[in-house]
TrEMBL record, chain A:
Name by which UniProt lists this protein: Xylose transport system permease protein XylH
Membrane topology: Multi-pass membrane protein
Residue intervals passing through the bilayer: 12-28, 40-59, 90-110, 116-136, 171-192, 222-244, 256-282, 302-321
GO CC field: plasma membrane
Domain of life: Bacteria
Keyword flag Cell membrane: yes
Signal peptide residue numbers: none
Pfam families reported for this sequence: BPD_transp_2 (PF02653)
Main localization, broad class: membrane
Species per Swiss-Prot/TrEMBL record: Phytohabitans houttuyneae
Role played: Part of the binding-protein-dependent transport system for D-xylose. Probably responsible for the translocation of the substrate across the membrane.
Keywords (A to Z) from UniProt: Cell inner membrane, Cell membrane, Membrane, Sugar transport, Transmembrane, Transmembrane helix, Transport
Lineage, top ranks: Bacteria, Bacillati, Actinomycetota, Actinomycetes, Micromonosporales
Subcellular location: Cell membrane
TrEMBL record, chain B:
GO cellular component: outer membrane-bounded periplasmic space
GO MF annotation terms: carbohydrate binding
Stretch forming the signal peptide: 1-20
The protein, known as: Sugar ABC transporter substrate-binding protein
UniProtKB keywords: Signal
């Protein structure tokens, strides 16, 4: 067990980060400025905060396709509750936390009870949330976006926590970057330093033998799904307080980006292997590519194509480095 | 490198000749397209500026082709490097504006479909001394954000005009097809249709997914089969209108199709009467003016519209005036 942890799943993604960074540094002029790095880090953090729990869940052998829309759903819940009932925004913030954790619990409970693959269960949740997001928003506020809550009680304090920024010299650092680092640290600590971490590796590696040696498989998996819910809530709050309103159709498709970031970072699709730090590097690769293509001024029509090429490149490099490492 | 290039050119020519010999189509195709000569105009001798255009385009909608063609035509004439980028997601679009600020562009043209999400980024650009103009969406909000000019149409007014026209046409039950769930401007159009239609009958909304045309077709077909009383379908984009024509045929419905916005294919549909009329907001003009106005501002401090909205629509295109538009639509600029 410990021996396998020493093989460092994130090793390959570090090389990927360096390669992509050098590439864009060489070809895109704006990419060389410190101010641009602030933007790159911010974009990476919005993916990275979600990539951490998604990576943990994948190590535990499950998927969550509802992660992307759950972000939007929590933001909508907080925003509409506060606005419609004229409450302090913190009431909405806490109720939406319960909501997001509830979605996670629902996913985990169904997966562990029915034994239906999580891919299917969370696909169902994804579609339900996608529909509910637009239907409820329209019923409640009569339009497809929520009302602006920036003048309500508690907004300033919430914005300071979830969506503020500060300057270091000429570089603007968004607070999400700091939260991202914290989440990565906590995720890594859980995986490598706690008993729960061992349980996560065990249930993802071989569920039956884990159960045989007394690992609480069910609780572990439900907790992992709820972890995704927790971070989805956090990102939802960021979106709400950074932009004051929420569009009900957003977040669709992001679940794959979180999964991609985790996979580039060394998580296996089959479970039982991966790391939280790797997921952070995966998110950084995605963020750098995302912004780098625009900084380089490449034709927007090709954007997705280049994104795909870069991701494949990073993943292949990753595999290759890992093989070299294992061979030694 | 050059030898490599000539070799590949020779290869390409050989391939084309072989293909041409193999089977020519006697009509249609690229050869029949008239070459547009808008590209042969002179170029301004002003310094080379870089302008970023950032829209909420969902990739693959013909409407944005027209916006971009207009923008590119102006950029070419004004000696401007145009950087186009797009994202339908509000916060992501805000990131693209931040990217343009980081890149130190000379001007920004932006669509404000999700104004609240973009407000912070736009104000940052203005604070950084970059002139910002808005186009297509954000008519209510552009002034408050520090944007200098706006080119577009008022979606509510356009919707009302459509609704009034439908009432004149004697419609009783109208289906308003929203092809992108959660898009503020599209919702405003349908709300406007409802308002303009007033007491003439009922307007019902239908959500379809424009990223998946087969599902658009089957959804409209199913609705028309289910509700035989629908006598008009109003779509909010030209590609959807052409699909709705198919749906009506398939459902055996007598419903007539009308639409917002035009494209090349729609000209034929209006000529043949498959589509009754279209509301045109001149997307080419929106793109062109957005870039040209920035050039004027950068080189001479001019502001088009003097701080007021510059309207590019709505106007109706139907069988009466289709010929005047057709020649440009064939070239893909209307």
């Amino acid at each position: 067990m410990t021996h396998r942890l020493l093989a460092r799943p994130e090793l390959g993604s570090v090389v990927g980060v360096i390669a992509i960074f050098v590439f864009f540094f060489a070809i895109a002029d704006p990419f060389r400025q410190a101010t641009s790095m602030g933007t790159v880090l911010y974009v990476s953090s919005t993916i990275g905060i979600m990539a951490v729990p998604v990576a943990l869940l994948m190590i535990g052998g499950e998927f969550d396709l509802s992660a992307g829309v759950n972000v939007t759903a929590s933001a909508l819940t907080a925003s509409m509750l506060s606005y419609q009932l004229s409450l302090n925004v913190w009431v909405g913030v806490f109720v939406s936390l319960l909501f997001a954790l509830g979605v996670g619990f629902f996913n985990g409970f169904l997966v562990t009870t029915t034994r239906i693959p999580s891919f299917l269960v969370t696909l169902g949740t994804f579609l339900m949330l996608q529909g509910a997001n637009i239907a409820v928003t329209k019923q409640v506020s009569g339009q497809v976006a929520t009302d602006n809550i920036s003048d309500m009680d508690g907004f300033g304090a919430a914005k300071a926590i979830f969506a503020s920024s500060f300057d270091i010299g000429s570089v603007t650092i968004r607070i999400t970057v700091l939260w991202w680092l914290l989440f990565v640290a906590v995720g890594t600590w859980i995986l490598l330093r706690t008993r729960a971490g061992n349980w996560i590796f065990a249930v993802g590696g071989n569920e039956d033998s884990a159960r045989a040696v007394g690992v609480p498989v069910r609780q572990t998996k439900i907790a992992l799904f709820m972890g995704v819910g927790l971070c989805a809530w956090f990102m939802g709050m960021h979106r709400l307080f950074a932009f004051s309103t929420v569009q009900s159709g957003e977040g669709v498709g992001n679940e794959f980006i979180y999964i991609i970031a985790a996979v580039i970072g060394g998580c296996l699709l089959t479970g039982g292997y991966g790391s939280a730090i790797g997921a952070a590097f995966g998110a950084l690769i995605f963020g750098m590519t995302n912004q780098g293509i625009v900084y380089a001024g490449w034709d927007a029509d090709w954007f997705k194509f280049f994104l795909g090429v870069m991701l494949l490149f990073a993943t292949v490099l990753n595999m290759w480095v890992r093989r070299l490492a294992v061979r030694r | 490198m050059t030898t490599h290039r000539t070799a590949s050119r020779m290869l390409a020519i050989a391939a084309v000749l072989t293909l041409a010999a193999a089977g020519c189509s006697s009509e249609g195709g690229k050869q029949e397209e008239e070459k547009s000569d808008s590209g042969n105009t002179g170029v301004a001798d002003t310094p080379r500026y870089t302008i970023a255009m950032i829209t909420h385009e969902v990739p693959g909608d013909t409407f944005w082709d027209l916006v971009r063609k207009g923008a590119e035509a102006a950029a070419k004439k004004d000696n401007i490097e145009l950087r186009y980028s797009n994202n339908a997601d509000g916060p992501e679009q805000a990131n693209l504006i931040q990217t343009a600020i980081d890149s130190k562009v000379n001007g920004i043209a932006v669509t404000l479909a999700k104004p609240d999400a973009l407000q912070g980024a736009v104000q940052k650009a203005v604070a950084a001394g970059i002139p910002v103009v808005a186009l297509n969406a954000g008519l209510e909000q552009w002034k408050a954000m520090g944007v200098t000019e706006f080119f577009g149409q008022d979606e509510s007014i356009a919707g009302e005009a459509a609704g009034q026209r439908l009432a004149q046409d004697g419609a009783k039950k109208v289906l308003c097809v929203i092809h992108e769930q959660g898009h503020v401007a599209l919702e405003a159009r349908c709300a406007g249709v409802k308002k303009g239609f007033g007491g003439a009958g009922v307007v019902e909304n239908l959500n379809v997914n424009s990223k998946d045309m087969p599902s658009v077709k089957s959804t409209i077909t199913a609705k028309l089969q289910q509700d035989k009383s629908v006598d008009r379908v109003i779509t909010l984009g030209a590609p959807i209108a052409i699909t709705a024509v198919e749906s009506a045929k398939e459902a055996g419905s007598a419903a007539k199709i009308v639409t917002f916005d035009t494209n090349k294919e729609l000209v034929g549909s209006i000529r043949s009467g498959d589509v009754q009329w279209a509301i045109d907001q001149q997307p080419y003009l929106q793109g062109y003016l957005a870039v040209d106005s920035l050039w004027l501002y950068l080189t001479n401090g001019n502001v088009i519209g003097g701080g007021q909205t510059v309207l590019t629509g709505p106007s109706f295109i139907d069988q009466k005036n289709i010929e005047s538009v057709a020649q440009y639509a064939e070239k893909g600029t209307r």
